[in-house]
Amino acid sequence: MTKIDTLKEFGSFNLHPERVKALWFQNSTFFDPLDLLQVRYEMLRYVIVEKASKMDAAALFGVSRPTFYDAEAAFAQAGLVGLLPQQRGPKDSHKLSCDVMAFLGTYLAEDKRLPSKDLAALVLTHFNIAVHPRSIERALGKKKLYNACP
After folding, report:
1. Against a cut of 0.90, is the pTM above it?
2. Which of these, 82, 72, 46, lies nearest to 61 by C-alpha position?
3. Are residues 78 and 102 in the same domain?
4. Does 88 map to a domain?
């Protein structure tokens, strides 16, 4: 596995390395503009240690000022881990509450082969919640959802 593959796997691959204008990232064997974590860390270090302005640092490292402020806050809250890109969107199956899963469980007790699209239609009819059939399949595959419900 190459370094680029590893960076992509862990979400630290910089999609815009050409925007990094810091001289020490140009033709360096240590500083890598493809490594998003390193770029963001160096951007913050440039402001804190070198006393550069936040606006100048954002421009030098090819990010917007809001992105700089987001990185600064994330680093203050979580350290280096905070500089890694975070998953967007919902982090859990918020539509598939304990009530919904219990409801689905009653139908699955009668017929375990009931297709997920039929289960999604039942949830829509009974709870007025549109759930993708694949979300139901994933939730049913996670035994912890059943254990988390009273």
Report:
1. no
2. 46
3. no
4. no
